[in-house]
Amino acid sequence: MNLSKHFKSLIIGLTLAACINSNAFDLHKKGLIKVDFTPCQIGIIGNLFATDNVYGLCFPLPLSYVKNNYGFTSGVWGESYDHRGVQFNLVNQTNELSGVQMGFLGITTDSDGINSKSSGLQMNVVNLSENLFGLQFGIFNKSGRLNGMQWGVANIADQGFQFGFVNVFNSKKTQKEDHHQTDARIQFGLIYNHSNHSAFQIGAINYNKNGFLPIFPLFNFTLF
Predict the structure, then answer these.
(1) pTM as predicted
(2) Sequence spans of domains, the chain
(3) Residues 79-109: tens digit of each pLDDT
(4) Cis-peptide, bond into residue 62, ω within 30° of zero
(5) Helix, strand, coil percentages for the chain (3-state, nearest 5)
(6) CA–CA separation, 32 vs 84, rounded Å?
(7) Which band of pLDDT confidence, cut at 50, 70 and 90, is reported for residue 10?
(8) Apex CA 221: angle with CA 219 and CA 224, to 5°?
(9) How far apart are the first and last CA of the chain?
(10) CB neighbours of residue 39 within 10 Å
(11) In whole angstroms, what is the distance from residue 216 CA to residue 224 CA?
(12) Residue 6 pLDDT more than 60?
């Protein structure tokens, strides 16, 4: 009997959540009140029962996409253009991050190489970012312009601070002369450090294209 009551409560709750995200309560379109957001979204299949703005809770079960998501999201695959708050999904994807990502795969896809709008903490097994101001903590971390630190088994970035077993500075697309050349690069690698530009390195084996020697054990640094 108690199980039946709990099941009924669950059905009612899901129905109300669906109505909140559907046109049933779209008072903004009716002109009754200036509201164009929902406090709760349940993402069943992509944009089903979705709005542009979720200010509160979002549950991607299994998928959801929100243009602006300010609050907490937890589920399987949560995607948004601008997320401010916490993404706690199996897969987290956003163009602009201001907050925390936690899960298996975290992706920020902001392509602005100078004025990145993504900031905060990526704490997934695999972290991928175009540009990030903050921290990546995981097994594999990859970022373009990084103003902050990577902490993991393998780290790849254009600049920043790296601590791991294998660290690499500069992907092929950034091996041209530009303003990135003057940005700080520091590596602490238990096995191997690699840099195609100026860097300070401490590790078992260090390759530094501009170092006092191209390859040197224990440490290496740039003379010019």
Answers:
(1) 0.77
(2) 2-157
(3) 888 989 999 999 999 988 999 999 999 999 8
(4) yes
(5) 15, 60, 25
(6) 28
(7) very low
(8) 165
(9) 78
(10) 13
(11) 17
(12) no
